[in-house]
Write a structure and sequence with these properties.
heterodimer; A: mainly alpha; Cytochrome Bc1 Complex, Chain D, domain 2; 4 helices; 0% strand; B: mainly beta; Porin; 2 helices; globular
């Protein structure tokens, strides 16, 4: 009996929380601008790399601080296995981690 | 195990001297404490990860877990201690392309998300592993080979897979169970929503199946993470669901408030058959846990949590946990960062 109440309570909490998060997302959406860049500069590549990092790697951990390009290569190689990154993804994330 | 790691280190140094890539040592160190029902457990932990890139396609990676556990047998009693050294993985990866990576050696069993992604002390938001993390992973590690990659990848969704076979091993520090299984997941990058399903067939002793499902949702615009798993095996079934909210809306990630992260996890396990040594609660169990993490500069994090464990046949207990973790990353030899 107790277990059933826990399940119901957990599902309700999850539902309320998800609704709250979804509402927050909806509210903040108009404030952002969609990327319309056509020419890819180094800054744009780093920005794309950051977005890819957040999408694939940042779901579990933050970006390591102050690493050299050579260290970044090893880090990204590891993530390439875990997060099934493409060659292109790897290059862009490298631009972000060690520009 | 020390010998294995030393040989691996020497090999990595010699292999990398002639090339551009530098091996790195990363990982985490921490001091964890927990009090359950008045009994204290203290654990200094070191979990180094060695990563050795070999050319564009090959990678050797390894992680160990070294910890000393100081524990009380009863509330207020004297402390005993025991040391544990575990080689969690030591694998050779060949990355053919994003559709196929071949892994051989010892690797973390890819069943649901906790074991492979969230278990490191510098990543997990709460100290304790969920009850059902023990289902379908075959003690957590597999010795054999694994294929992984994405089946299809578009702007709207990715379909990823992992498939493995593990042999039975009784070698000291390299034990594993014979089994086979895999995981298939769909990831929607636009919303960072991932849904996966896992399966494992244990092919040793009494053969049985384990099934699992997992969910991860991390919206871009709200600093929240929602994760959950459901798992079933002959021992029983259960789930956990966890939400964490980084308060970076209050002045950014580096502000005093923005460094805070409240966490909540609910988990339940329902026992269906008594199976010894399956690392699961012996009876029906449930536990809500409230946590609060604080991210200090230089990759240091403070963790605190309170949970109440409700067991069907024994006394309910409070679970208090405190800890500090540090995530490190440096090249495998001095000067290699240049």
């Amino acid at each position: 009996m107790k277990a059933r109440w826990f399940t119901i309570a957990a599902v309700c909490c999850a539902f309320v929380f998800c609704t709250f998060v979804a509402a927050q997302e909806k509210q903040t959406k108009p404030q952002t601008t969609s990327p319309t860049n056509t020419s890819v500069s180094a800054t744009d590549e780093a920005a794309q790399g950051e977005k890819l990092f957040r999408t694939h790697c940042g779901r579990c951990h933050n970006a390591p601080e102050n690493i050299s390009p050579r260290e970044a290569r090893a880090v990204v190689r590891q993530m390439r296995v875990r997060a099934t990154l493409t060659d292109e993804d790897e290059k862009l994330i490298l631009k972000f981690l060690a520009p | 195990m020390f010998s294995i790691l030393c040989h691996l280190y020497l090999f990595s140094c010699s292999a990398a001297v002639a090339q551009e890539d530098v091996p790195i040592i990363s990982g985490g160190a921490g001091f964890l404490s927990s009090t359950q029902g008045g009994t204290n457990v203290l654990q200094p932990v070191l979990a180094p990860v060695l990563s050795v890139p070999l050319g564009d396609r090959w990678l050797i990676e390894s992680r160990a877990d070294l910890r000393e556990v100081y524990f009380q047998q009863s509330p207020g009693g004297p402390y005993s201690n025991d040391g544990f050294a575990t080689l969690e993985y030591l694998q050779l990866d060949y990355n053919a392309n994003s559709h196929l990576t071949i892994t051989a050696g010892r690797f973390l069993t890819p069943f649901n998300i906790y074991n492979e992604r969230i278990s490191p002390i510098w990543i997990s938001k709460l100290q304790d592993a969920p009850y059902v993390a023990a289902i379908g992973t075959g003690q957590g590690y597999s010795d054999g080979f694994m294929l992984r990659g994405n089946v299809v990848s578009t702007h709207d969704f990715d379909v990823n897979y992992e498939a493995y076979f593990s042999v039975a091993s009784t070698i000291n520090k390299l034990t594993s169970e014979r089994g086979a299984g895999g995981r298939v997941s769909v990831f929607i990058p636009r919303t960072r929503l991932e849904i996966g399903t896992s399966y494992r067939r244990t092919l040793e002793g009494t053969r049985f199946n384990s099934e699992g499902a997992d969910l991860t949702w991390e919206p871009y615009r709200v600093p929240v993470q929602i994760r959950g798993e459901w798992a079933h095996s002959q021992s029983g079934f259960g789930y956990w669901i966890q939400a964490s909210y980084r308060m970076s809306r209050f002045g950014g990630d580096s502000s005093p408030i923005g460094r805070l992260e409240p966490v909540f996890r609910m988990q339940q396990f329902f026992r269906s058959e008594a199976i010894p040594n399956d690392s699961l609660p012996t009876t029906n169990a449930q536990q809500p846990t409230f946590g609060l993490n604080y991210y200090l500069p230089y990759e240091v994090r403070l963790n605190a949590s309170y949970g109440r464990q409700f067991l069907a046949t024994t006394t309910n207990t409070n679970v208090w946990e405190f800890g500090i973790t540090y995530r490190f990353l440096f090249p495998a030899w001095p000067g290699a960062s240049r």
